[in-house]
Specification:
about 150 residues, single chain, five-stranded mixed sheet, 4 helices, two-stranded antiparallel sheet
Length: about 150
């Protein structure tokens, strides 16, 4: 039996305990009964929800800092969506709209968008400014920074 991991629900923000060997078995939230992994990026435009996902998830969290008016952000969106389907449940994939949550953009010193930031254990471990329009490129970048 593997050790349980803390996984934050993308729907209700409840922290769940899930055994590592059950991550790929479509676990559901004990509180709201929704899937813990949807294969889609989670919108974390609320500072409290963002902080909880970064601090409490015991899997890496990949964040796309973006804005609706940004052309390169819109170009990268389909590739990011496809990468999310491939990376979950090994990595939580999220998006932060810097227009809706400017405090997060300021806190993390986001100077250009899109910017990808990878968090492990609550700390930023890698950052990539600029659009990546190939899902495989996003997955490869994350894999290079996340131990298997």
């Amino acid at each position: 039996m593997s050790e349980p991991l803390h996984i934050v629900c993308p729907h209700c923000q409840t922290t769940n305990r899930v055994r590592a060997d059950q991550l790929a078995s479509d676990p559901t939230c004990g509180q709201c009964k929704q899937p813990l992994f949807t294969g889609h990026p989670v919108a974390l435009d609320d500072v409290t929800a963002f902080d909880k996902h970064i601090a409490r998830n015991q899997i890496p969290v990949l964040v796309d800092f973006w804005a609706p008016w940004c052309g390169p952000c819109r170009m990268m969106a389909p590739a990011y969506e496809k990468a999310a389907a491939e990376l979950e449940p090994r990595v939580r994939v999220a998006k932060v709209n810097t227009e809706a949550a400017p405090a997060l953009g300021t806190r993390f010193n986001i100077r250009s968008i899109p910017t990808l930031a990878l968090f492990v254990g609550g700390k930023e471990v890698a950052r990539q400014p600029g659009a990546m329009t190939n899902p495989a490129q996003i997955v490869q970048w994350v894999s290079a920074h996340v131990p298997r």
